Amino acid sequence: MTIDRNTMEPYAEVRKDMRRKVVDAKEMRELTFSDIEEATGIDKTYIASAVYDGASTTEEEAIAIAEAVGLGGEEDVIEGLQIPPMKGQEDPSIPSDPALYRFYEVPQVYGPAMKAIMHEEFGDGIMSAIDFEVSVDKEIQDGEEHVVITYDGKFLPYKKFP
């Protein structure tokens, strides 16, 4: 099979078809990612990330997710969940969707402060986005719903040259 290294075709189409089937099945059954997590024991954010091109799964995880949404035995779905996605391929402009825009706005507002604290506490380096987990949870604070987003990445110190 010949792979276009820029678009990763035909893998991108397999993932796109998988996403459409999983999202359609999830909506038809009125499932949430939390429901799928409960059925599979796999973290809901990881499942969503695998469906929306942020991660790939093992075969065992793919089978469990497919079964949880009623697509057990659909080999193209199971295969699509396992294919490593092309990450960061979305439009480079800032999104107009308000929820996605906030994920750009937060580091613009708080990024320098977060970076300064990270450097104070860890030294000169960065947070890994490979040895990394993200979670999205709901929490009630003072009677109001709050979104709690947690980034958990390994610290990678910059190498010093001799």
TrEMBL record:
InterPro entries to which the protein is assigned, alphabetical: Cyanase (IPR008076), Cyanate_lyase_C (IPR003712), Cyanate_lyase_C_sf (IPR036581), CYNS_N (IPR048564), Lambda_DNA-bd_dom_sf (IPR010982)
CDD domains: Cyanase_C (cd00559)
Active site: R102, E105, S128
Database matches in Pfam families: Cyanate_lyase, CYNS_N
EC number: 4.2.1.104
Cyanate lyase C-terminal domain: residues covered: 89-161
Lyase among keywords: yes
Reactions accelerated catalytically: cyanate + hydrogencarbonate + 3 H(+) = NH4(+) + 2 CO2
Top EC class, one word: lyase
One GO MF term attached to the UniProt entry: cyanate hydratase activity
Domain of life (superkingdom): Archaea
Keywords: Lyase
Homology family: Belongs to the cyanase family.
NCBIfam families membership: cynS (TIGR00673), PRK02866.1 (NF002773)
Role, per record: Catalyzes the reaction of cyanate with bicarbonate to produce ammonia and carbon dioxide.
Protein name per UniProt: Cyanate hydratase
Annotated organism of origin: Haloarcula salinisoli
